[in-house]
Amino acid sequence: MRRFFVLLRNEMKLSIRDMNMIIFAVLMPLVILVVLGIIYGGKPAYDGAPYTFVEQSFGAACAVSMCAGGLMGLPLVVSDYRERKILKRFRVTPAHPALLLAVELSVYVLYCAVSLATLALAAGVFWRVRLHGSVWVFLGSWLLTMLSTLSIGMLVGGVAKNTKQAGVIASILYFPMLVFSGTTLPVEVMPSAMQKAVSWLPLTQGMTLMKNTFLGISGGNALLPVLVMLGVTAVCAGLAVRFFRWE
Amino acid sequence: MSKAISVSGLTKSYGGRTVLDHLNLSVKAGTVFGLLGANGAGKSTTTECMLGTKRADGGTVTLLGQDPVRDRRALFERIGVQFQEGDYQQEIRVFELCEETACLYKSPADYRALCARFGIGDKLKSPVKSLSGGERQRLFIVLALLPNPELVFLDELTTGLDAKARRDVWKTLAELKAQGLTIFLTSHFMDEVEALCDEICILKRGKAVFYGTVEDAKRTCGCDRLEDAYLMLSDEEERK
Predict the structure, then answer these.
(1) Is there a contact between A6 and B99 if contact means CB atoms under 8 Å apart?
(2) Average confidence score pLDDT of chain A
(3) Do the interacting molecules here have an ipTM over 0.85?
(4) Quick count: other Cβ atoms within 10 Å of Cβ A83?
(5) How many domains does chain B contain in total?
(6) B234 falls within a domain
């Protein structure tokens, strides 16, 4: 475990020095929340809704940091380390590939957690946003959505040939998921055909789950999104370790 | 004396071009072995096939009695490696790179003492990218020595070092050898090879054209200087 924490501390320092993730995984979700807050204030999500628009969007703001970390940060850093032959140097040490992937994964889990904390603080203080459902159920859905998103990034980073390829794959995953999964554009305002199409994105499932658990909506089937995300996490993480390439 | 390295019939080709042709090597524990040859002769490929970072097409490699691919994690507790193109995280500082490497081993050496020994003790807080070529080279030698290894691989170890720094590195390596360290190195500097190596192998197009002690090489060619002998030996085929 000492190995893990020394590496985590160092990698976290390096990542903060780089600033990209501070901007995209922490500040950007906050800016989105603030903009929504300024526009909608304490207005209900729709006429007679028991929750406000900002409350409805809270899960989406959380997902923005997951997207940034899982679909941009994680795949790029792992493939960059491979291209720079840093992984090759690790290969001639007793380190296990899973150790490295776990460290990088944890860096982005921390970003998502910091983002969640800042969002909750800002939303609570300025717009009196409150959690309508159970805090544990919401945190469970947050964790699951985050892990499934990060596992996709781990797979991309683990198997991409080089940084360029990882960047292309990351962009293909990042932008559609960011825009269409309901993170920046609420699913509710999309035409119904589009809603059906985007429901295939794994992040949409996570978003819906986070929104429902945050708002305390018990209706709808929670089993399907949970299964989809558990499946995505298991398959992606398994493949990432199995097909990990040092060079 | 026991063998630290034993290589037999090592063969590797890329796209039909043979880069290693049934190479045999054997290095006794506590000695320094030099692998020589022109650029493209197969030195790096040999080293990488021995370390398991490249897969050989044929032949066997045993390092400290273990298989470098199958026993990788146990073996690399006891082996240090310095690659020719050592790279590092963009923003990392010297002490961070040392810490990050040291934490991977069960009982690592003290990196502060090692850095001081190699003359970069005052650079611990500097970003690695701000070091001079020679300082960086010495840092990567330090990293290779961090596991307190029994065997160390040094690829072109003093490239980029000034004359004084090279002498200092030689001296330190000689001290470590006296403590029982086995060293496998590649080099283009014959003065260095002459100062350090007990045995050498000269590669040419993936084949060993000479294998023996430095003295043997000079005697074989009737030369006083290893550099002349090296040029004669590695040029052999052309003259025939």
Answers:
(1) yes
(2) 89
(3) yes
(4) 18
(5) 2
(6) yes
B63 shares a domain with B2: yes
In terms of domains, do B43 and B104 share one? Answer: no
Round to whole Å and give the CA distance between B35 and B46.
9
Q: Please give the residue range of the domain that contains residue B240.
A: 1-78+149-160+178-240
A129-153 pLDDT, tens per residue? 889 988 999 999 999 999 999 999 9
Tokens of B185: 């190195």
- Whether residues B72 and B188 share a domain: the answer is yes
Q: Is A50 exposed, middle or buried (0-12, 13-18, 19+ CB in 10 A)?
A: exposed
pLDDT at A195: 81
Ranges under pLDDT 70 in chain B: 1, 236-240
CB-CB neighbors (< 8 A) of B77 in chain A = 94
Is residue A1 less than 8 Å (CB to CB) from chain B?
A: no
Q: Are residues B114 and B212 in the same domain?
A: no
Which of A106, A222, A108, A179 minimizes the C-alpha distance to A214? A222
Residue B200 within a domain: yes
Quickly tell me which residue has 């904390």 as its tokens: A117
Domain assignment present for residue B118? The answer is yes
Letter string b/e over residues B83-96, b meaning 16 or more CB atoms within 10 A of that residue's CB: beebbbbebbbbbb
> Hey, where are the domains in chain A?
2-242
CA separation for the pair B33, B173 (Å, rounded): 12
Shortest distance, CA B103 to any CA of chain A (angstroms): 5
- CATH number reported for the structural domain that contains residue B238 in this entry: 3.40.50.300
For the cut 80, the answer to whether the pLDDT of residue A218 exceeds it is no
Q: At CB < 8 Å, which residues of chain B contact A? A: 51, 53, 72-74, 76-77, 79, 81, 83, 85-92, 96, 99-101, 103-106, 143, 147
Measured CA to CA, the distance from residue A153 to residue A125 in angstroms comes to 33
One domain, residues B72 and B155: yes
pLDDT tens by residue, A35-67:
999 998 888 888 888 889 889 889 989 999 999
Residues with Cβ within 8 Å of B232's Cβ and at least 6 positions away in sequence, in order, are B221, B223
CA dist B9 and B48 (Å) reads 15
Are B41 and B154 within one domain? yes
pLDDT higher than 70, residue A220: no
Domain assignment present for residue B28? The answer is yes
Cα A80 to Cα A87: distance, rounded to the nearest angstrom: 9
- Residue B121: per-residue pLDDT: 93
